[in-house]
C-alpha cells in the first residue's frame, strides 16, 4: 500500500510540476510579447517589466523539479538509459523546433514572418525548448557525477546547486554585478565545474558496446545544443535589432552557465569514453573472471556435481587466459581417472605428456608436484604438436593432489604472470568446491550408514529368542547387550524331542548390516539342522557347507553347538572356533574351560573342514554349571586396557557356585561391570548360563 | 592403529605388524599381504612380535589368504606371536590352518622346508 501511495504521490507531483512550468511559461510568453509590443508601440506596458524574468525563474524551477522527479528518482535507469533520456529530450525538442522553422519557411517573407512579435513568439518557444533540454541534461549529468557518492562530492554538488539558484535569483532581479566580483565569481565557478566534471567513474562500468552507444548519443547531444544556440541566438539578434525590451537569454547568466556545464561535462565524458575504449575489453575480462570465480564457488550450492565443477573450471580457465586448448585430468573419489578436454584430443594430451616424461621434466604433469609450472620451454622440442606454450596447475583436495589442469597456446610465451595468478585462483577454488562436495557426500554416507545400523540393530534384536527352552532337568538364562555398532552375537535354544534340547551360541565376524545378515542365516541353519538330530560335528560340517556360499572371503562365524540329552545325562557338543565353554562341576570350587579342537565356520571352505571339527561329550550331574559366552565378555577392557579375561570370568562363576542360573548370569555381568567400571562396553557381549537341577 | 613394514630378508618377504589390528586397520594388513603376493614373493614371514591385539576382522585377513597361498604355492609363516594373540588364533582354530613359529629363524627354516 505504501509503495502504491508513494507512486501515486510522485505521479501527482510530476504532473503538478509540469503544469506549473507550463502555466509559468504561458505567462512568460504573453508578458514578454506584451512588453515587447508595448515598447515597440511606445505604450506604457500593462505588465510589470520583471514579470517575464520572474516567470522564467518559476518555469526553470518547476521544470527542474519535473525532471528531477522523473529522472533522478528513477532507480531503474542505467548509464546509457540516462544518456538516452537526454538524447530523447533533445530529439523531441529539436523536432518541435524544426516544425516551427518549417512553418516559418512556408510563411516565407510575409508580413507575419518578419513581424518582431511573431519572431519573439518563435524565439520564446525555442528558448523554452532549450531550457527544457538543458535541465533534462543537468539532472542526468548529476546522476552520472554522483554515481560514486562521497561526502565531499555531495557537498560540492550542493554548493553548485546553491550557486545555480543564486544566479537564477540574481537573473530575476535583473541587476548587473560589478566587473571585479564577476571575475572572481567566474573563477570559482570554473574551478567547481572542472572538479565536478572530473567525476567520470561511471564510464568504467560501460562495456564496449555501451561505450560506442554513449559516444554516439553524446555527439547527437552536442549537435542539438549547437542547433539550439544557433536558433535562439539568431532569434535574439533579430529581436534585439528592433528593441531591447525583451527577455534576452544572453543576459541570462543562468542559461549560459547551465549550457556551459552541460557542454563541458559532455566533452569530458566524450573524451574519457573515447580514451577508455581500448581498455574496456580488459575491464570486461576482469568482470568475467569475477563471475567465473563465483560460478565455481557457488556450484556447490546449486546441487551440481563434481563433474560440473570440472567443466566450469576448464571453461573459466580457458576463457580467462584465452587458451587455445586445455585438458583437466582428475583422479575421482573412487580412484578412477577422468579426463576433460577442450579443443584437444586425448591422443594429443597423451603425446605431450609422454614427451615431457621422456625429457624427464619433473613437472606437475606427473601428479605429485604441488606447484604451478610453466613447462613451455620443454614443449618447443615436440615437433608434431601445434602448441608452443603450456601451463599446468595442480588441483588439491584435502592436501592431496587429485589432478592436473593444463592450458595450451599455439603462441610461444603465451602466458603471463597475471594469467597464472588467475587460473591458480580458479584451481584453488575448484579444489575447495570439490572438497566440499566430498565432505557433503561423506556426511550423507555417514547418515545413511547410521540409518542402516539402526535397521540392522532392530533385525539383530528380533533374531534373538524371547524365550529359552527350559527343562525339568536344567534351567537356561541368557544375557545379551550390543554396542552402538551392531555386531553379530547370536544364541538360541531348540527342543529336539522330549529328552533332547539343542543350544547354540555364535559370533559373526564383522559388523553392521552384513553381520546382521549372516546372523539371520545362522539362525536359519540352526533351526533347520538342529531338528534333524544330527551329531554336533555333522551339524557344523553342514552349517559350514551352507555358509561358505554366502560368507565373504574374510568373514567367518564362530559357534558352539550343544545337544543336552536328559535321559543319558550327557552333553554332546562341537566347538567351531568359539570361546571355550566354562564348566563348573557340582561340589567343586574351581571352574575350568573345555578346550577342544575346532575351526570357525567359513575358515576352511572345502570338505576338509571335517578334519578341523570334532564332537565332544561330557556327562553332567545335578548342580553342574555351564557358562557359554562371546569374546565381548573376555575381551572387555577396563580403563587401564586390561582385559576381563578367562580368570576373572572363572572366578566370577566360582563365587556363586550354588546359586540359580539367573543369579549366576547376573553375578557374572555384575563382576564384568565392576571390572570395566562402565556398562558401555565397546562390543557385543553375550552370556548363556545352564544350570542342571538337583 | 597399526604400522606395517615390509622388507626382504633371506629370500623372504617379511611383514612386520606393529600395534593393534581392528576392523579398520585390517585393511592395511590386507594391502601389505596382497602386495607381497602380487610382487611374486614365495615366502612370506609375518612378524607379530609387536602385535598387541588382533580382532576377528584381522584374523579374517589371514584366513582369506589361506586358499590363495596354497594355490600359488606361497608359504606364509607367522612368528613371534604374544601369548594373548596366539590364544586368539587357537580358539578360532586358525592356528591349525596357519603356520606359526616362535621366532624368525624358525619361521624361515619352516618356510624353506615347505617350499622345497
Strand content of chain B: 25-35%
- Count of structural domains of chain A: 3
The number of strands of chain A is 15
Shape of chain A: elongated
Structure annotation, total helices of chain A = 19
Whole-number average pLDDT of chain B? 90
What is the CATH domain class of chain B?
Alpha Beta
- CATH architectural arrangement of chain B: 2-Layer Sandwich
Give the helix/strand class of chain A: alpha+beta
Summarize the amount of helix of chain A as a percent range: 55-70%
* Terminal residue distance of chain B: 37 Å
Beta-strand residue fraction of chain A: 5-15%
Low-confidence stretches of chain B at least 5 residues in length (pLDDT < 50)?
Answer: none
Helix and strand pattern of chain B: EEHEHEHEH
Short description, anyone?
Chain A is of the alpha+beta class. Chain A has 19 helices and 15 strands. In chain A, the strands form three sheets. In chain A, strands 2-1-5-4-3 form a five-stranded antiparallel sheet. In chain A, strands 6-15-14-11-12 form a five-stranded antiparallel sheet.
List keywords for this structure.
A: alpha+beta; Beta-Lactamase; Phosphatase 2c, domain 1; 3 domains; five-stranded antiparallel β-sheet; 19 helices; 15 strands; 56% helix; B: 116 residues; alpha/beta
Structure description:
The complex is a heterodimer of chains A (694) and B (116). Helices cover 56% and strands 14% of the residues of chain A. Chain A has 19 helices and 15 strands. In chain A, strand 4 (389-397) and strand 5 form a beta hairpin. Chain A folds into three domains: 2-282, no CATH class; 299-441, GAF domain (Beta-Lactamase), CATH 3.30.450.40; 467-692, PPM-type phosphatase domain (Phosphatase 2c, domain 1, 4-Layer Sandwich). With 116 residues, chain B is an alpha/beta fold. Chain B has one domain (2-115): Transcription Regulator spoIIAA. Chain B contains four helices and five strands, in the order ββαβαβαβα. In chain B, helix 1 (26-38) packs parallel to helix 2. The termini of chain B are far apart.
Amino acid at each position: 500500500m505504501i509503495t502504491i501511495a508513494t507512486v501515486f504521490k510522485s505521479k501527482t507531483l510530476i504532473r503538478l510540476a509540469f503544469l506549473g512550468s507550463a502555466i509559468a511559461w504561458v505567462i512568460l510568453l504573453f508578458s514578454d510579447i506584451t512588453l515587447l509590443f508595448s515598447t515597440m508601440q511606445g505604450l506604457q506596458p500593462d505588465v510589470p517589466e520583471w514579470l517575464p524574468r520572474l516567470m522564467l525563474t518559476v518555469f526553470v524551477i518547476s521544470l527542474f523539479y519535473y525532471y528531477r522527479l522523473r529522472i533522478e528518482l528513477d532507480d531503474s535507469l542505467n548509464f546509457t538509459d540516462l544518456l538516452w533520456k537526454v538524447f530523447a529530450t533533445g530529439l523531441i525538442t529539436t523536432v518541435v523546433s524544426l516544425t516551427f522553422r518549417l512553418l516559418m519557411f512556408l510563411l516565407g517573407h510575409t508580413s507575419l514572418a518578419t513581424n518582431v512579435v511573431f519572431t519573439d513568439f518563435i524565439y520564446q518557444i525555442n528558448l523554452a525548448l532549450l531550457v527544457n533540454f538543458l535541465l533534462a541534461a543537468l539532472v542526468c549529468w548529476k546522476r552520472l557525477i554522483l554515481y560514486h557518492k562521497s561526502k565531499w562530492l555531495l557537498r560540492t554538488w550542493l554548493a553548485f546547486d546553491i550557486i545555480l539558484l543564486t544566479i537564477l535569483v540574481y537573473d530575476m532581479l535583473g541587476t548587473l554585478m560589478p566587473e571585479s566580483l564577476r571575475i572572481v565569481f567566474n573563477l570559482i565557478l570554473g574551478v567547481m565545474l572542472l572538479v565536478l566534471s572530473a567525476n567520470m567513474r561511471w564510464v568504467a562500468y560501460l562495456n564496449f558496446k555501451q561505450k560506442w552507444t554513449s559516444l554516439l548519443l553524446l555527439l547527437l547531444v552536442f549537435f542539438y545544443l549547437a542547433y539550439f544556440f544557433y536558433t535562439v541566438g539568431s532569434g535574439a539578434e533579430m529581436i534585439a535589432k528592433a528593441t531591447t525590451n525583451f527577455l534576452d537569454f544572453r543576459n541570462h547568466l543562468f542559461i549560459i552557465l547551465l549550457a556551459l556545464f552541460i557542454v563541458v561535462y559532455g566533452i569530458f565524458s566524450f573524451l574519457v569514453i573515447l580514451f577508455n575504449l581500448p581498455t574496456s575489453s580488459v575491464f570486461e575480462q576482469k568482470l568475467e573472471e569475477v563471475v567465473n570465480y563465483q560460478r565455481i564457488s557457488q556450484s556447490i550450492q546449486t546441487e551440481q556435481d563434481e563433474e560440473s565443477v570440472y567443466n566450469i573450471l576448464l571453461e573459466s580457465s580457458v576463457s580467462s587466459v584465452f587458451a587455445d586448448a586445455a585438458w583437466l585430468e582428475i583422479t575421482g573419489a573412487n580412484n578412477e581417472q577422468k579426463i576433460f578436454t577442450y579443443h584437444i584430443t586425448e591422443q594429443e594430451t597423451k603425446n605431450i605428456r609422454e614427451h615431457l616424461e621422456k625429457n624427464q621434466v619433473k613437472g606437475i604433469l606427473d601428479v605429485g608436484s604441488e606447484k604451478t609450472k610453466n613447462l613451455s620451454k620443454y614443449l618447443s622440442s615436440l615437433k608434431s604438436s601445434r602448441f608452443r606454450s603450456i601451463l599446468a596447475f595442480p588441483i588439491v583436495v584435502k592436501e592431496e593432489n587429485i589432478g592436473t589442469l593444463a592450458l595450451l597456446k599455439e603462441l610461444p610465451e603465451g602466458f603471463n604472470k597475471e594469467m597464472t595468478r588467475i587460473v591458480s585462483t580458479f584451481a584453488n577454488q575448484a579444489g575447495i568446491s570439490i572438497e566440499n562436495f566430498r565432505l557433503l557426500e561423506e556426511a550423507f554416507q555417514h547418515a545413511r550408514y547410521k540409518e542402516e545400523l539402526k535397521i540392522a540393530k532392530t533385525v539383530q534384536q528380533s533374531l534373538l529368542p524371547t524365550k529359552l527352552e527350559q527343562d525339568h532337568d536344567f534351567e537356561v538364562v541368557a544375557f545379551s547387550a550390543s554396542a552402538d555398532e551392531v555386531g553379530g552375537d547370536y544364541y538360541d535354544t531348540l527342543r529336539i524331542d522330549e529328552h533332547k534340547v539343542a543350544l547354540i551360541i555364535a559370533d559373526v565376524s564383522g559388523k553392521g548390516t552384513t553381520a546382521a545378515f549372516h546372523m539371520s542365516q545362522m539362525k536359519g541353519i540352526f533351526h533347520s539342522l538342529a531338528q534333524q538330530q544330527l551329531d554336533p560335528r555333522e551339524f557344523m560340517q553342514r552349517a559350514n557347507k551352507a555358509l561358505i556360499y554366502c560368507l565373504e572371503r574374510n568373514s567367518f562365524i564362530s559357534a558352539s553347538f550343544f545337544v543336552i540329552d536328559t535321559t543319558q545325562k550327557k552333553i554332546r557338543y562341537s566347538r567351531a572356533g568359539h570361546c571355550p565353554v566354562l564348566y563348573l562341576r557340582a561340589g567343586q570350587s574351581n571352574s575350568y574351560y573345555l578346550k577342544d579342537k575346532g575351526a570357525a565356520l567359513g575358515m576352511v571352505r572345502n570338505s576338509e573342514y571335517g578334519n578341523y571339527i570334532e564332537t565332544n561329550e561330557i556327562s553332567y550331574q545335578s548342580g553342574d554349571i555351564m557358562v557359554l559366552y562371546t569374546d565381548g565378555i573376555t575381551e572387555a577392557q577396563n580403563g587401564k586396557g586390561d582385559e576381563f579375561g578367562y580368570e576373572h570370568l572363572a572366578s566370577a562363576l566360582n563365587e556363586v557356585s550354588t546359586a540359580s542360573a539367573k543369579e549366576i548370569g547376573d553375578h557374572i555381568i555384575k563382576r564384568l561391570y565392576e571390572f570395566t567400571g562402565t556398562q558401555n562396553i565397546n562390543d557385543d557381549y553375550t552370556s548363556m548360563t545352564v544350570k542342571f537341577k538337583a | 592403529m597399526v604400522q606395517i613394514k615390509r622388507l626382504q630378508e633371506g629370500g623372504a618377504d617379511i611383514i612386520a605388524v606393529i600395534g593393534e589390528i581392528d576392523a579398520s586397520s585390517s585393511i592395511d594388513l590386507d594391502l601389505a599381504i596382497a602386495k607381497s603376493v602380487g610382487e611374486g614373493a614365495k615366502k612370506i614371514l609375518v612378524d607379530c612380535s609387536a602385535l598387541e591385539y588382533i580382532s576377528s576382522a584381522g584374523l579374517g585377513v589371514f584366513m582369506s589368504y589361506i586358499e590363495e597361498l596354497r594355490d600359488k604355492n606361497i608359504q606364509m609363516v607367522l612368528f613371534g606371536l604374544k601369548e594373548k594373540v596366539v590364544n586368539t588364533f587357537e580358539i578360532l582354530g586358525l592356528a591349525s590352518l596357519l603356520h606359526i613359529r616362535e621366532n624368525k629363524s624358525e619361521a624361515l627354516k619352516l618356510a624353506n622346508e615347505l617350499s622345497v
